[in-house]
Amino acid sequence: MITIFIDNKPHQVKEGQNLLQACLSLGFDLPYFCWHPAMHSVGACRQCAVKQFKDDKDTRGRIVMSCMTPVAEGLRISINDAEAKAFRSSVVEWLMLNHPHDCPVCDEGGECHLQDMTVMTGHNYRRTRFKKRTHRNQDLGPFINHEMNRCIACYRCVRFYRNYAGGRDFDVFASHDSVYFGRHEDGTLESEFSGNLIEVCPTGVFTDKTLKQHYTRKWDLQTAPSICVHCGLGCNTIPGERYGSLRRILNRYNHEVNGYFLCDRGRFGYEFVNSGRRIRKPLWCETGQKEQKPIEKESALKHISTIIADSKGIIGIGSPRASLEANFALRAFVGPENFYSGMSAQEHKLTSLIIDILQKGPARTPSLHDVETADAVLVLGEDLTNTAPLLDLALRQSVRNRPKELTEKMRIPAWDDNAVRNAAQNAAGPLSIASAAGTKLDDIATRTYHAAPDDIARLGFAVAQELNPKSPGVPNLRDETRKLAQEIAHTLKNARRPLIIAGTSLGSETIIEAAANAAWSLCESGKPAQLCFAVPECNSMGLALMKGKQLEGAVNAIQSGKADTVIVLENDLYRRADETAVDDFLHNAKHIIVLDHAVNPTSSKAEIVFPAGTFAESDGTVVSNEGRSQRFYQVLDPNHDIQESWKWIGAIIKTLGRAPAAAWDNFDEITKSMTTALPVLKPVQDIAPSADFTISGQKIPRQPHRYSGRTSMLANVNLHEPKPPADPDSPLSFSMEGYESPPPAPLISRYWSPGWNSVQALNKFQQEVGGPLTGGDPGKRLIEASGKEAASWRLNVPSGFTPKDGEWLIVPIHHIFGSEELSMLSQAIVGRAQKPFIALNSGDAERLNVSDGEMMEIALAGKKYRFGAKIKPELPVGTAGLYAGLSLFPVFGTIYAKLSKV
Amino acid sequence: MEQPLTKNIRSNAEPLSLKEYEKTGGYQSVRKALAMPPQDVQNIVKASNLRGRGGAGFSTGMKWSFVPMGPDARRPKYFVVNADEMEPGTFKDRLLLEGDPHQLIEGVIVSAYAIEAEQAFIFVRWAYKLAIKRLEQAIKEAYANNYLGKNILGTKYSLDLRIHSSAGRYICGEETALLNALEGKRATPRAKPPFPQVSGLFGKPTIVNNAETVANIPHIINNGPDWFKDLSRSNDGGTKLYGVSGRVKKPAIWELPMGVTVRELIEEHAGGMQDGYAFRGVIPGGASTDFLTSNHLDVKMDYDSVAKAGSRLGTGTMIVLDDKTCPIGFVHNLVKFFARESCGWCTPCRDGLPWLEKILRSIEEGTGQPGDIELLEQHCKLLGPGNTFCALAPGAVEPLQSAIKYFREDFERHLRDKKCPWK
């Protein structure tokens, strides 16, 4: 710590940062535009000017940009100096020369950093009498609205899109006061992270197109802390609601997890909550009838009592997209011996294997933030951009760590972003990627290797063996693969924080085991290697920790007649197993009861369907790929029978008059039962304050204090203002009254501070700007490396892949927009989804006489399907890439199929 | 009077071929320098007190001395000639590029050697097509005679030299924007530190010197620092290319001892004002310098003297303002140029200059309003050094601020009469 003087008062600040960061961390209101805590300083906007003095005798001083000034012992500055203040006000005046005064019709209004900074500098009177320059706007696709006239040219967008996120199709064009930020021509933004432009832009140039369709001001949105449900990374989000519908998702900062950014699937996938396919009332299909009809809650509960009283045995099928609590409720109801995880056989095996490896092995599972700090990375088998998008973004930062060692030596401060980039140029890595098809990250990879899953695993095993001869060797390895393994091993060995990433997306056990061996080899030699696995769903890890039984067992239980009733929790079984098998299974079950939020092929076959809450209508806990358990809260109080699955199951238990599982009446009670029954989940109890938590006797309000229309929103129904709904499950209230200052981190529902209406108010919620949230980042890790035990090597080294004559090995190809179930109920995501395809190597395509786009037929399990052909020259010979996540056509495990041209 | 820089330049004729150039003593400095340790070459240049001819006047030897030397230095190192001459009223480098390309190349070789650079570039203004053609020819000859390429003249030193034709923006002449442009990026200046000597072209140690500066190097090596200092009439060493444009009788460019006076230049060399035109003022060193007036005619045209008089020597090529030209129109034209040439990176320059341009146009068109002059004056301070990212905007307001100072009555007349008195 060093001492600096601000307006003659001494302050202790951390060394190595810039003055703007220091001032903001100290709580001073210093305006800025081009600086961003994750993207650092470039000195473009000149908004953060302060006066710097040579010493205590210097009274004249000189204006400096605080973002470009390193803090130093004894540094003397003034924020309140009249000249500095006048200059800052002039900067806003210049920015306003061309900025339209369209705040009332601008989507950014009310949460606009430019508005805040304008007020902060005091500029308010327009002195110019000249015309404003105008721009033509572009159609940037279904996610982002473009209004260039509002641009103040802070360059944040282009710095994020190109430098930070690696996008190519967005740039700054032209010069002087007509600089233009956009694409070279109209068209959909290609980056998977384009939605962040909405939050990165300090004003209304880039706004949320999906929000525009049901626009609501920030101050009118009811919000609550939530967790993204569209992949396994557990990014923290802030969903916003008005009039019972979900309006948008904003990033919720978690220093350890997603930091400042989200992917586009996470940001724009939310509209499934408002989908027309939502189930809003219980449905009942009377015996002998074909159609399900909406019924009252009470009747539904009565029907289920009858079914259960009459049943020979009940089994429960859980879900990796349902919360721990929902799964636990079902498990408690049917008994652990009758609880099945609801994952596909392959996924069950893989996630259990991952848990086993992470719990027993010496390698730690990293947070996304830890991934950003890695300095050598090996990715085995994952196309991260499409299976775990924020990992892509994290790796794009981590590859800069090695080059940054050089710039550090050159004494270029880490925050001097352009200087660091100029000095390091395009140096990146080391990052080695082994995948079936090419990935977007290949452009920053030091080495890439495209091979069949077994060969990817063999490379991983070979790397492990190069790192530690004690790990099992790989027989018959080709010389070039051995050489590649040696090179990769060399980069990992020379790193300070090596990282191995693998995952479940290729459905390969051996890839996961190879990754474990590689990480453990490093650990054995004393390197703190980290081991990261991408998992498919928001609670895949949580469910795996619960150790439900395999789905196959459920089929057997029904087939053998041991049970005749199935309760399916938030799960479309047709995405978990072969269509015929699921058909048979559901046909054999006498009673099918489904709890889910939207109609799907499984729910359509149910006798009773209970309308389950989505993340937006539920309180719950999910466990991310890191093993971090995180709490999400109800954002809206549904004006229907919709409620959390765990509440439905609680109600069923109560109706049946059963003890003892019926012990839960609210969220805290079920958490307590759960953590007692499953000690591995014990830390879940401490993720967030319990429902009785208050500050000064007040709950934490979900609505901002400026929330409007409360007395009139329902006046067309009833003139009397209804009482706000009670929330017995959380310390949050469905109201605008309550504790206004920053609450404990897990309860942060929005960022706001006096004078800071935009997302940048986040500065006021962090211990230091860009650092952890005050009071610590939310979430509790459930998995820690054992540390003590030596690695027990995985010995399952596969033999290499040999193409079969006339048959192709099917490898799934994942797509961020299209491969995930829930987001495909959102219009904007559907707008970005690719058409299903079969990808082939050019040689194979030639042999089959097909060219790009031509229809192909695939024969699988006695059925034939047709897809367009796509040529991917890098795909290994003898493999065919099949678009993953197709409903009714999931790819499981190792499948060979015949292909032919139509 | 010695004129080392221009002695070989023949008006309206092809420049000397390599053989002809060698006959006049050309490339001797390469032989001499390559026989010395690079550090000694640096020391000689430092002792000569050669100051950068691009406008800033920073000591060339001093600039070189910041380049990391020896086996531990990051490589390749680069030497870049800034020949992106685009300052309004300035055309001195063009004379050297077109008139004696071998002199520049000789200077490049010695300078690059002095900092142990293995790669050199000449960054030329796109419009200087003839200069580019002649330089290309000269470089070809230099390669053929082993003044460039591998193991120059049998020594261990190798140097590759290429020409890069700029995409044509004024800001490319700013040394760090030039480096970005050379890398294929937007020509936006870089923040300093880190200085190009440490992290320059492609992040490697780099020196950027003005073409005229580089042309001096062979002569300093050949004749020694004392000879160079003695060429000058002031503390700053050497000769200088001075130019005069405007309504003078003989607008031209001359190589003269550093430190001739404004009066000598205008009255003797340029032949005085054209008949019927009276002298009102002059911007002494290109478009981004403050006006001097008839009170300053005896100011010596060297860095310190001009600075003392309230302006800058800049490029040493002056534009004369006469009594039949509206000073507001004159300044408006300059500010319009600078507003257009702003790279758009920092707010005061990008948005402030166009505002000034609009106010000046309005005044000139007779629609100026009370308070306009004060607004202009405020901006001259607000766009001062340190407040903007680079020196473009501070340079842009120099002629404006001095015009208001010396010709305020003209501004006021425009407002009062609601028209330009010269129209």
Summarize the structure.
The complex is a heterodimer of chains A (902) and B (423). With 902 residues, chain A is an alpha/beta fold.
How would you describe the overall organization of this protein?
The complex is a heterodimer of chains A (902) and B (423). Chain A is an alpha/beta fold and 902 residues long. Chain A folds into 5 domains: 2-94, Roll (Ubiquitin-like (UB roll)); 98-274, no CATH class; 279-362 and 538-688, 3-Layer(aba) Sandwich (Rossmann fold), CATH 3.40.50.740; 364-528, 3-Layer(aba) Sandwich (Dimethylsulfoxide Reductase, domain 2); 808-901, Barwin-like endoglucanases (Beta Barrel). Chain A contains 25 helices and 36 strands. Chain B has helices at 18-23, 28-34, 38-48, 60-65, 92-99, 101-114, 129-144, 175-182, 211-230, 262-269, 303-308, 327-341, 347-364, 372-382, 392-417; strands at 78-83, 119-124, 160-165, 206-210, 239-246, 252-257, 279-283, 317-322. In chain B, the strands form 2 sheets. Chain B has a 4-stranded parallel sheet, sandwiched between helices. In chain B, a hairpin with a 5-residue loop joins strand 5 and strand 6 (252-257). The chains are: A alpha/beta (902), B alpha/beta (423). Chains A and B meet through strand 4, helix 2 and helix 15 of A and helix 12 and helix 13 of B.
Binned strand content of chain B: 5-15%
Q: According to CATH, what is the class of the largest domain in chain B?
A: Alpha Beta
Number of domains of chain B: 3
Largest sheet of chain B at a glance? 4 strands, parallel
Compute the number of strand runs of chain B.
8
Q: How are the strands of the biggest sheet of chain A laid out side by side?
A: 15-14-25-24-23-16-17
* Whole-number mean pLDDT of chain A: 95
Number of helices of chain A: 25
Flag low-confidence runs of chain A: none
